[in-house]
Amino acid sequence: MSWLTRVRERLPFMSKRETPDNLWVKCPRCQEMVFQKEYEANLYVCPKCEHHGRIGADARLEQLLDAGYSVLPAPQVADDPLNFRDTKRYKDRIKAARASNPRPDAFTAAYGAIDGVPAVVGVQDFTFMGGSMGMAVGDAFIAAAQKALDARCGFVCVTAAGGARMQEGILSLMQMPRATVMTRRLKEAGLPYIVVLADPTTGGVTASYAMLGDVHIAEPGALIGFAGQRVIQETIREKLPEGFQRAEYLHKHGMVDMVVPRGELKATLASILGYLSPAKAA
Asked: d(Cα 246, Cα 223) in Å, to the nearest integer?
């Protein structure tokens, strides 16, 4: 017992100083403690090792869009279409996820501008049931793409997901072709569809709209793949190379067009959109 604790016990009027529990953040890569405000000011990137932390939909929209953007309405879908239950009821899982998240599901879209260039930005939030793709995500993606078609502007999709939502079974897998159809419509309309691959982007999301962009940008160190590394190793019975399924490895091997740090992402997107978006009629 320290001398200060003993003094407090003898002097009951001397209260323990209250301090917030969230003053510091521990970087998962370098294990260094980073001041919370410094971490947020640096766009949730560790200033010591440049590890790009996972962020929610609202923070991502604020980082990418100019002030004054409007969030698109969340789609209304059945909460538990299959009456699914594993160790918990699916309805209970959804309720818990919504209680700890400001958005009703894992995909949120908004319409606004990126450095003055009109765009729709859709963001997948990994904190909501691992960003899993269910009917709500599929409908939100389709609504965002339709907004881009109506506004004649580019569509930027930021992906971060563990794949299809197992609790919705075949209904979750049906979102893959539905989203693919919308990317095709954007292409036919001559509108740019840009994908930002955040950590992690895996499973059915990778197998559909995450890899159908005109331009693919990855954040540094992002995990990107379909099946897990252990599954692949056990299937092919070979040791995988260092950094396999990371953004830099995929960029080197031609699956990603560029790896862009978060601080440069907005300017990069504005430049690409400005170049690819159709010219406005005079």
From this structure: 5
Is the torsion defined by CA of 250, 256, 261, 262 positive or negative? negative
Strands (E), the chain: 24-26, 33-35, 70-71, 107-114, 117-124, 154-161, 193-201, 215-218, 258-259
- DSSP state, 248? H
Rounded mean pLDDT, 115-130: 97
Query: E-assigned strands of 135-219?
Result: 154-161, 193-201, 215-218
CATH topology of domain 55-276: 2-enoyl-CoA Hydratase; Chain A, domain 1 (3.90.226)
Residue 9 has pLDDT above 60, yes or no: no
Q: pTM for the full model? A: 0.89
Strand 70-71 relative to strand 107-114, pairing: antiparallel
Query: How is the chain split into domains, by residue range?
Result: 23-53, 55-276
